[in-house]
Each structure stands twice: as structure tokens, then as C-alpha cells.
Amino acid sequence: MLKFALKLDGVASFLLGVLTVLVRPEVGMPAGLQIGLGLFCVFYGVGVYFLGTREVPDRRIVLLVIIGNTVWALDSVLTATAGWFPLSGLGVALVLAQGLAVLGFAVLQFAGLRSAASATGRGTPPRPRTLA
Question: Is residue 131 part of a domain?
């Protein structure tokens, strides 16, 4: 499940980045920022997809991806609601939709990471139960 979640995140991020750079839908965000975010998504997508192709993805890098996705999702909510940019209605909807998708990737990746850790025995062992 972890490798699938990483690859899905990679493909979705890459495609969003290409769409943002080439089409640049009018959402009310400065064009330079929109292009920069799009290019970031392209390179991020390639990197995360590559991580998902590894036999055993590096746990530390996966954790960074999960943290980054969580921060991105929270920032998306703030961007859509805080009035930092004069986003159009379409802009608010797109920012919130991609933020929700990114949060979904983080949840899938976290679940996959936990599952992989328990399957390999590399996870934290449960604490022994003691009677108090």
C-alpha cells in the first residue's frame, strides 16, 4: 500500500504541476507564484514517484513526504480562507480540492508506512501490559 500511495501522489502531483504551468487557470493567484508552485509539483511528483519504485522506500524520506503533505494540506486551507490572495470561486474550490487530495495521500502513506513497519518487524514493538 505504501508504494502505491507514493506512486499515486507522484503521478497526481506531476500532472497538477504540468496543468498549472501549461494551462494556468485563472484562480486569482499571482502568475509567478502559480508557475513556481507548478514547477515544484512537477519535480516533487517525479521524486515521490521514484521513491515509490524502490524495493523498500526509505522510512525517513517517507516521513518527510508525509509531513510535507500534511503541511501542504493545512496551508491549502489557510490559502483558501485567510484572504492572502484574491482567489476566485474556482480558485478557492481548486485549492481546497487539491489540499484534501494531498491530505488523503498523507493518510494513505502513513497507513502504508505503519503496515510496512509491522510486516517487516521494524516498527516499534508494543509495550508489555502490566497490572497497575
Answer: no
Question: Measured at the alpha carbon of residue 28, what is the angle toward residues 25 and 105, in degrees to the nearest 5?
Answer: 65
Return the exposure string of 19-44: e unless at least 16 CB atoms fall within 10 Å of the residue's CB, then b.
ebbeeeeebebeeeebbebbeebbeb
What is the total count of domains within the chain?
A: 1
pLDDT cut 90: percent of the chain above it: 64
Contact of 46 with 17, CB cutoff 8 Å:
no
Give residue 34's domain range. 2-120
36/52 Cα distance (integer angstroms): 24
Residue 125 included in any domain: no
**Do the domain assignments include residue 40?**
yes
Q: Return phi, psi of residue 38, to 5°.
A: -65, -45
Residue 37 resides in a domain? yes
Q: How many residues does the chain have?
A: 132
Burial class (CB in 10 A: 0-12, 13-18, 19+), 121: exposed
> What's the predicted TM-score (pTM) here?
0.81
